[in-house]
Amino acid sequence: MHAMQYITAAVLAAFVGYVGAWYMGAIEGNFALLLFLATAVTGAYWLAERLLFLPRRRRAAQALEAAAAQRRAELDRMGIRQVDGDVAEARGRILMQPWWLDWTAGLFPVIAIVFLLRSFLFEPFKIPSGSMIPTLLVGDLILVNKFTYGVRLPVINKKITAGTPVQRGDVMVFRYPPQPSMDYIKRVIGIPGDEVAYLNKRLTVNGQAVPTTALPDFFDQDAMRYFKQFEEDLGGKRHRVLNNPEAPAFVQGASNFKFRENCRYSVEGVSCTVPEGHYFLMGDNRDNSLDSRYWGFVPDENIVGRAFFVWMNFGNLKRIGPFN
């Protein structure tokens, strides 16, 4: 038992060290991997508790009760009725789960539920930037549907069910292609085979201009200024977008991404043919979004899920609800 205490202390210290190094920026953390390992380790302790440690403690408690009963019988034969010691208390101490099982096997049900929900149903995210304003604001806490586009195995992200095809206008969370350890959120503009053009700040898909309606200017409280606001109808999904008339139309600083030859850049903007198995995404805050115009296409294997609901914004409770 003493060995298990030391082993468990080392395992817990390793987890704490990993999280600490991640928090301090010394390493790039992987929460999906961390949660998977926590589930596997606590699950192993939980099985060991059910199959080994708990039966062992019960046998020890039964042996204690048998010894106490035998002692009482011997004392009865000697005419002694008063017996020192509380057998029930001693039995409780023997059956009590030690600390190293409390912090492993005891946490397994909760960790397992979180792992299953996050991996296969819904995953929470926090919006860290303004690239999706006005649809999503900084500080919005959102839910992402993990099964709409097909169920994927955790950590390796391999799709195991077909799901519903990605549609234009969906708000998608995905692994940032230049740095897959980071999650990004943008709107799907083009699906495989589409010809997407964003020229002079007008969006066209397959040669058809996306219908746009002018709306009252949007006041950005963080920037403390107004921006031109429009409503787009992309694939039947109506959503609002922002444009800054003072920002240039051309794309400055596009990287040398995979399939860059599918894109043509000019002073007017960019047009791209979306390759098979990839998607073209843009932020709704069109002049303040690092998106496919700059770093290229999102491969299918990078998809995390479809964002659909703001479940909390501590600065504005009116934000709670679904969005397009």
What is the element layout, followed by pairings?
Blueprint: H1 2-23, H2 31-77, H3 87-95, H4 99-102, H5 108-120, E1 122-126, E2 141-145, E3 171-175, E4 183-190, E5 195-199, E6 202-205, E7 208-209, E8 212-220, E9 225-234, E10 237-243, E11 263-266, E12 269-273, E13 278-282, H6 292-295, E14 298-299, E15 303-312, E16 321-322
Antiparallel strand pairs: 1-2, 2-15, 3-4, 3-15, 4-13, 5-6, 5-12, 6-7, 8-9, 9-10, 11-12, 13-14, 15-16
Family: Belongs to the peptidase S26 family.
Transmembrane segments: 7-25, 31-48, 100-121
Active site: 131, 186
Question: In summary, what is this structure?
Answer:
This protein has about 325 residues and is an alpha+beta fold.
Provide an overview of this structure.
The mean pLDDT is 93. The protein has two domains: 2-116, no CATH class; 121-322, Ribbon (Umud Fragment, subunit A). The chain is built from six helices and 16 strands. The two termini are 56 Å apart. Strands 1, 2, 3, 4, 13, 14, 15 and 16 form an eight-stranded antiparallel sheet that branches. It has a five-stranded antiparallel sheet with strand order 7-6-5-12-11, with no helix packed on it. It has a three-stranded antiparallel sheet with strand order 8-9-10, with no helix packed on it. The protein has 324 residues and is α+β, with helices and mostly antiparallel strands. It catalyses: Cleavage of hydrophobic, N-terminal signal or leader sequences from secreted and periplasmic proteins. It is found in: Membrane. Residues 101-312 form the Peptidase S26 domain. The chain crosses the membrane at residues 7-25, 31-48, 100-121.
